[in-house]
Design the sequence.
């Protein structure tokens, strides 16, 4: 698929997408999407990430024109108000989760279908389809039935079919979820490169956080029908806005205790806090903060600070994930060790939790407490 | 697996049942080409009876073909769109329509024929014409066409395919003719075969709806069974079997083709 | 895509055909049956021996045929799914062809089998020196109805048995169940919905079978024959309408049982 980068000159086809107060209630009365405000820049790739049922696919289908939002909402493509326009007139390209390739057509016919319904001439269609086949390494498969293709090839046909009409917006609904892990990793790099080269505005739905971080310019995390945080992968990973985001992206260790001097105290442990944390809180106040596994180091046993007992150690190749039992902490604390060292279950070790990397969580709201 | 006594017992039973179903077919085939059935095959073979049937009843054969083909055409144009409508709509009205269309399967042809006669029997132009039989056949076979197409639609994810086509800019009619119809092909063909077979063999309705000038093959068959010698009846049955066998074999072949999943 | 309502257009032809040529005639029948002295015909069905006898004998005949064909077809159907052998596909084809033979032809086949020159007559002549002629009695009807019922049930049994989870049988065997216990506790319960559904279809088809009875012209008046006589010979339209509607109601009821059990509609012949 390397040829993609060479033959597809960088385009200027994209258009900004704006969602204004877009809300969706299903026919049965369930509120699928709370009023949503979203702006996607021209040429930007936005990833919608969240667990199943969070509203990400609904958002995508609203942008596509497969669903229509409740009264009062507005969707604009650049200057064009598309709120009431059905998908066939929105000029979007869409890649479906299960590809939706037409079983009654071969590979070429599938790819050329968008041109066929636009009444493009035979020669023109043929040329463009040829270019696509070349670009996606499908030259030898042009006359094949779609049943004779592998998952990866089907995925490429679906992508080729979606972009041949040079849409303003490309929508991808979990396009890689039907593929095996190895192929997934390769294809997401390819798709990312393609999207950048096309300069197309793209919305990409996934439930896989690793994929989300690899793909998008920005990630929007959805939970229960609303966007809880939107930002670059780095912003979201390093400063998650709440516990949901923190837990959804990567592994997080939670520490909760009382402020004592400059440290957070839980059980007999004392975790040193950075000054901006302890100076803004009063002595004895309850504080919740989090730390990533790679921001914790295992050190020799120490009398003061944080100590724990090795409960499990898993060798992962590039690192070793050690799970520590620590007094005053609910659940096990995950630590990533990059030295090739063996840890035995039961070892008592000290933990150096980098204060500068600690993330403070707001006081739990009443609803969270009740949940 | 070792085949024990029980296997052979079951095999014998199955063969017996098959014989029950198939022996009369062979008997009527041989009787149709035997000089004298009372004497048996030793009386020699002849095409005399077939010729006689042709002289007496060829008009019923042509009429049957005509009605079967026109019924199939009607079902194609009425049934396929309707099946698609039923597949994509879930409402009280679609349930009502579904029930109305399926009922003629459940209600004996006799009752439908009586109803048609009591309402439309007074229009003598219609009553005397083959169109009256055609109406009965369409009513009786339409549900089979609709169900056959509906079954295929329910087994494929046609909504997804349609969304795919819509995302590429296809209008409603383009989606219907480019995507829905081609992907229902097997259902449409098996529905057509079923319509042809059922219409060609329909008796219950047709007997009530026919006039002396509009006799179909099964009506002629009943007539010959009542009034002709056994050899002629057999020859006539032989012609009928020759007409529907290709349809049955085609339907079997269609069903045995491996089905693909989308 | 709620904006496109064109697809409503697609059912209009079917709706018009169904309303004018099915629903309206049915309504007319209903009206006819009720118009005559407030539906006294229905009362006659229950009180006049000629009608009651016809209804009861049709019910009993259909029930016997259904039970017999379910038993026969279960044995054959299970056998054909369980074993692989040469010529099996031919047997299956032979079993499914009679499905669409019209009732008149089946009547003729019965004559071929059990008529004055039929197989049974020859057999009787050979064995006891007397021609067995069964075709024109109730046994003839029974044979004819069996002829169109067996294929339906066999195909249904085969369809269900092929989908039967083999793990269930294997689990049963691992628990030490013998062949009969497996049949009773695993296979038959799995077949039950299919048997009920195809049995109901057989019953409904037998109830409405006209062609076979017409060809055999038996002295036994099955319901469709009674309707026919009332309509053509006695010109008693109200009675014919009432009887057809009652018959229609019974068959519709059976087929809705079949449908609830997930059965497909395998054509009405007879």
Sequence:
């Amino acid at each position: 698929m390397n040829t993609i980068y060479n033959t597809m000159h960088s385009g200027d086809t994209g258009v900004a997408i704006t969602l204004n107060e877009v809300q969706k209630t299903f026919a049965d009365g369930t509120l699928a999407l709370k009023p949503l405000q979203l702006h996607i820049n021209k040429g930007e790739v936005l990833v919608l990430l969240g667990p199943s049922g969070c509203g990400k696919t609904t958002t995508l289908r609203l942008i596509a024109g497969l669903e229509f939002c409740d009264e009062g909402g507005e969707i604009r493509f650049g200057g064009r108000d598309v709120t009431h326009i059905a998908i066939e007139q929105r000029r979007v390209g869409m890649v479906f989760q299960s590809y939706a390739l037409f079983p009654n057509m071969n590979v070429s016919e599938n790819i050329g279908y968008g041109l066929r319904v636009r009444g493009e001439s035979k020669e023109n269609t043929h040329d463009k389809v040829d270019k696509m086949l070349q670009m996606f390494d499908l030259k030898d498969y042009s006359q094949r039935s779609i049943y004779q293709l592998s998952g990866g090839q089907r995925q490429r046909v679906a992508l080729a079919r979606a972009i041949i009409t040079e849409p303003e917006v490309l929508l991808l609904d979990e396009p890689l979820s039907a593929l095996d892990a190895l192929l997934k990793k390769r294809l997401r790099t390819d798709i990312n490169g393609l999207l950048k080269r096309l300069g197309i505005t793209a919305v990409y739905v996934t439930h896989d956080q690793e994929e989300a971080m690899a793909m998008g310019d920005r990630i929007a995390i959805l939970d229960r029908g609303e966007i809880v945080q939107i930002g670059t992968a780095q912003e979201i990973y390093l400063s998650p806005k709440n516990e949901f985001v923190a837990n959804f992206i990567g592994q997080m260790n939670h520490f909760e205790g009382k402020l004592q001097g400059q440290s957070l105290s839980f059980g007999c442990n004392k975790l040193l806090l950075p000054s901006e944390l302890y100076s803004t809180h009063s002595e004895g106040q309850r504080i919740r903060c989090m730390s990533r596994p790679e921001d914790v180091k295992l050190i020799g046993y120490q009398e003061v600070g944080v100590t724990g007992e090795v409960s499990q150690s898993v060798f992962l190749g590039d690192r070793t994930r050690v799970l520590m039992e620590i007094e005053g902490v609910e659940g096990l604390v995950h630590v990533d060790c990059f030295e090739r060292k063996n840890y035995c279950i039961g070892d008592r070790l000290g933990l150096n939790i980098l204060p500068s990397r600690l993330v403070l969580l707001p006081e739990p709201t009443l609803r969270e407490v009740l949940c | 697996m070792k085949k024990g006594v029980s296997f052979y017992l079951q095999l014998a039973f199955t063969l017996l049942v098959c014989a029950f179903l198939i022996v009369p077919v062979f008997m009527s085939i041989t009787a149709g080409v035997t000089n004298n059935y009372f004497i048996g095959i030793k009386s020699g073979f002849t095409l005399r009876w077939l010729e006689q049937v042709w002289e007496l009843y060829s008009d019923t054969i042509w009429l049957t073909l005509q009605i079967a083909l026109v019924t199939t055409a009607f079902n194609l144009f009425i049934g396929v769109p309707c099946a698609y409508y039923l597949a994509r709509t879930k409402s009280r009205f679609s349930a009502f329509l579904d029930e109305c269309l399926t009922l003629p399967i459940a209600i004996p042809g006799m009752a439908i024929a009586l109803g048609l006669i009591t309402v439309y029997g007074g229009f003598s132009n219609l009553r005397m014409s083959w169109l009256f039989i055609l109406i009965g056949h369409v009513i009786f076979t339409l549900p089979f066409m609709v169900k056959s197409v509906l079954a295929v639609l329910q087994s494929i994810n046609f909504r997804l395919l349609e969304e795919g086509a819509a995302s590429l800019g296809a209008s409603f009619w383009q989606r219907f003719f480019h995507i829905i119809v081609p992907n229902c092909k097997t259902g449409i063909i098996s529905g057509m075969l079923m319509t042809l077979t059922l219409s060609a063999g329909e008796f219950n309705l047709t007997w009530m709806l026919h006039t002396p000038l509009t006799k179909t093959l099964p009506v002629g068959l009943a007539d010959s069974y009542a009034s002709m010698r056994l050899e002629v009846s057999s020859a006539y049955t032989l012609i009928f079997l020759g007409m529907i066998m290709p349809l049955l074999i085609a339907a079997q072949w269609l069903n045995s083709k491996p089905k693909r999943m989308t | 895509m709620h904006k496109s309502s064109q697809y409503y257009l697609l059912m209009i032809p079917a709706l018009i055909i169904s309303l004018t040529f099915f629903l309206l005639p049915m309504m007319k029948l209903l009206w006819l049956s009720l118009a005559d002295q407030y539906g006294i015909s229905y009362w006659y069905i229950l009180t006049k021996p000629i009608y009651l006898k016809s209804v009861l004998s049709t019910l009993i005949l259909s029930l016997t045929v259904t039970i017999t064909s379910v038993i026969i077809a279960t044995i054959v159907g299970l056998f054909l799914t369980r074993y692989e052998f040469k010529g099996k596909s031919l047997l299956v084809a032979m079993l499914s062809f009679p499905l669409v033979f019209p009732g008149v032809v089946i009547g003729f086949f019965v004559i071929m089998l059990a008529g004055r020159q039929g197989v049974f007559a020859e057999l009787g002549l050979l064995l006891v020196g007397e021609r067995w002629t069964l075709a024109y009695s109730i046994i003839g009807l029974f044979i004819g109805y069996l002829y169109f019922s067996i294929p339906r049930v066999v195909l249904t049994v085969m369809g269900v048995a092929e989908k039967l989870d083999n793990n269930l049988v294997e689990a049963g065997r691992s628990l030490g169940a013998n062949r009969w216990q497996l049949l009773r506790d695993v296979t038959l319960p799995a077949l039950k919905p299919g048997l009920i559904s195809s049995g109901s279809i057989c019953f409904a088809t037998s109830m409405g079978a006209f062609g076979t009875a017409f060809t055999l012209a038996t002295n036994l008046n099955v319901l469709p024959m009674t309707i026919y006589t009332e309509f053509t010979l006695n010109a008693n339209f109200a009675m014919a309408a009432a009887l057809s509607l009652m018959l229609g109601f019974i068959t519709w009821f059976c087929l809705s049982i079949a449908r609830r059990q997930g059965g497909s509609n395998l054509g009405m012949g007879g």
